Amino acid sequence: MQTLNGVYSPNTAASFGADVAVPRTAVGTWNFTTDGGATGAYTIFTVTGDVYIEGIMGLCKEAVTGGAGITMELGIAGNAAALASLIPQTDATLIDQYYTWQDVGPEVNPAPVVLIIRSFNLANGADIILTIATGAATAGSIDFTCFWKPVSANGNVVAV
């Protein structure tokens, strides 16, 4: 149990002073049928303040399908150069059910999540986005997991 000034506080930005080194996790699901699968950028995690991201990965719950040539990547809003630093552009039709998506070659279950996950700092609330660059996904579902720590007292990561 974490406490802040003697009061219980879960592992959120509010507990920053008491447990700054404790990792936190944000998990969100993106469903290409109901949340969107057309070409464009979609916010997956809203970030406030400054945070240290220890890694992000996707676990496919339903295979991503649609027309030929669907490519997508996970990156940072407003920073196209950093886009490939999270999960590089991938042929989305390779992301099958129960595959782990953490790089250009989705891994079959069980997937090793070792040296591939990239860690980085996000400053000033730079949101984490899914960009569908080409084609359109008409079905599929991916659970995204973000492992993070606050760097500022208002640092927080929330799944959309």
Sum up the structure in keywords:
160 residues, five-stranded antiparallel sheet, 12 strands
Could you characterize the architecture of this molecule?
The chain is mostly beta strands. It has one domain. Helix content is 0%, strand content 49%. The protein has no helices and 12 strands. Strands 3, 5, 8, 9 and 11 form a 5-stranded antiparallel β-sheet that branches. A 5-stranded antiparallel β-sheet has the order 7-6-10-4-12, with no helix packed on it. It is globular, with a radius of gyration of 16 Å. The chain starts with a strand and ends with a strand. 29% of the residues are buried. The model is unreliable at 1-9 (pLDDT under 50).
Assign the structural class, choosing from mainly alpha, mainly beta, alpha/beta, alpha+beta, or little secondary structure. Answer: mainly beta
Domain count, please report it.
1
Give the overall form: globular
What radius of gyration results from the CA coordinates? 16 Å
Low-confidence stretches: 1-9
Indicate the mean pLDDT: 83
Our count of helices gives 0
Q: How much helical structure, as a percent, in the residues?
A: under 10%
Order of helices and strands: EEEEEEEEEEEE
Task: Kindly report how far apart the N and C termini lie.
Answer: 26 Å
Number of strands: 12
How would you sum up the major sheet?
5 strands, antiparallel
Proportion of beta-strand residues: over 45%
Concise synopsis of the structure shown:
The chain has about 160 residues and is an all-beta fold.
Give the secondary structure arrangement, pairings included:
Elements: E1 3-4, E2 7-8, E3 24-31, E4 40-48, E5 51-66, E6 71-76, E7 87-91, E8 100-101, E9 120-122, E10 128-134, E11 137-150, E12 156-159
Antiparallel strand pairs: 1-2, 3-11, 4-10, 4-12, 5-8, 5-9, 5-11, 6-7, 6-10
